[in-house]
Amino acid sequence: MGKIGFIGGGVMAEALISGILNSNSYKPNQIGVSDPLRVRVKELEQKYGIECSIDNQRVIESSDIIIIAVKPQHIENVLEEIKTLGKSTQIIISIVAGATLYLLASKIGHNSVVRVMPNTPAQTSDGMIVWTADKGISQKHHPVISNILQSLGKEIYFEDEKYIDMATAVSASGPAYVAIMIESLIDAGVYIGLPREISKTLVMETFKGSVNYLDKTNIHPTKLRESVSSPGGGTVEAIKSLEENDIRAAFYKAIKAAYTKYQTLGEMHK
Ligand SMILES: NC(=O)c1ccc[n+]([C@@H]2O[C@H](COP(=O)([O-])OP(=O)(O)OC[C@H]3O[C@@H](n4cnc5c(N)ncnc54)[C@H](OP(=O)(O)O)[C@@H]3O)[C@@H](O)[C@H]2O)c1
Q: Which of 114, 161, 243, 251 has its CA 20 to 30 A from that of 132?
């Protein structure tokens, strides 16, 4: 569908550009990027053969789909430029954390807007991406948007925007929870005497293997836990200790705390 223009040529924009080009759904001459940094613009131009500029106006005026990929502190200026220079026939996709549909539509002046929340593994196309759209986006646009977002990983569309804050607490903050579990297990391995590098390999491979195993067999995590826990064995001893330390309650509280925070931040945009 026509041309895609990125406002902001940082890490996430590059992940999208590289994924979109690899999927062959758009050609380099159908992609444009603007970024204030001249060296960055040159780098993207040379690497992908796409049209790059330090001028947002060029990208806004020549694109059918505009993807806003700037940091949250810069979004207001970008929305102002799109309002002045853009057209109501354009689709505006924002990947900016916390930018609600209300903020996007009210600042731009039309409701063909899409709110996307990716997570950090999206940088290597291993992301979990959730998205929602305002009334100006019809069902016929959905495959086009899904197709673009699939270059970052697995995508899920929500009809109701309220799920975005919930998903943000689970999947966007999620890599931090996984990282702290991995860190803790590596340190625990070192604590009982394993060399640190060995402990790291054991933990990383156990995470990857367990997730792949659950994915491939489609069994419930409870079944996996039960199958590893032989009666009176070491695993149940560890599980008993985790339960005594309220591991489940700790996750419930943590996710609720994140969700409450995202709701509060969202309210600030209303
Ligand atoms: N990275 C992630 O893992 C991740 C995960 C979830 C969501 N996100 C969201 O994705 C968005 C982009 O993140 P990112 O990691 O790609 O950020 P980034 O690497 O900092 O990229 C943003 C780019 O936008 C440029 N920029 C700033 N103001 C601009 C303007 N007015 N017009 C055009 N370009 C402008 C920046 O240039 P300067 O550096 O010169 O300012 C920078 O090159 C953020 O809003 C973030 O919330 C990112």
A: 251
The reply to whether ligand 1 has any atom less than 6 angstroms from the CB of 74 is: yes
CA of 71 to the centre of ligand 1 (A): 4
Residue 252 CA, ligand 1 centroid: distance in Å: 31
Residue span(s) of the chain under CATH 1.10.3730.10 come to 174-265
Which of 12-26, 28-42, 183-197, 216-230 is least confident? 12-26
CA of 54 relative to ligand 1 center, distance in Å:
14
pLDDT at res. 270: 63
Fold annotation for 174-265? ProC C-terminal domain-like fold (1.10.3730)
pLDDT above 70: percentage of residues in the chain: 99
Q: Please say whether the structural domain 4-164 has been given the CATH code 3.40.50.720.
A: yes
Task: Tell the residue nearest (CA) to atom 19 of ligand 1.
Answer: 10
**CA dist 264 → 130, 179, 194, 236, 261 (Å):** 19, 25, 43, 40, 5
Rounded distance, CA 167 to CA 156, Å? 10
Whether the CB of 219 sits within 6 Å of ligand 1: no
Question: Is residue 22 within 8 Å of 81, Cβ to Cβ?
Answer: no
